[in-house]
Amino acid sequence: MKSASLPLRGDIAAKPMTRPQAALTGAGILLLAMLSAIPMWNALQLLQDENFMFWNGLLLPSLLLASCVGIIACYAGVMYAFFSRAVTEGQYHREVMSIAHVFLGLLGLVLLGLSFPLSSQASAVFLDLTEHCPGSQRFQVLFSYSQVLHNIRALPECSNKTSVEYCRGYANAAPYTQFLKDMEESYACSGFCTDPPEEKTVAATPTLFSLKNYKVPCAGILARDMMSFAGDVSKQLFYQGAFLLGMCVTIGLTQLVGQGIKGREKS
Question: 20 to 30 A from 82, CA-CA: which of 13, 99, 156, 259?
Answer without folding.
Answer: 259
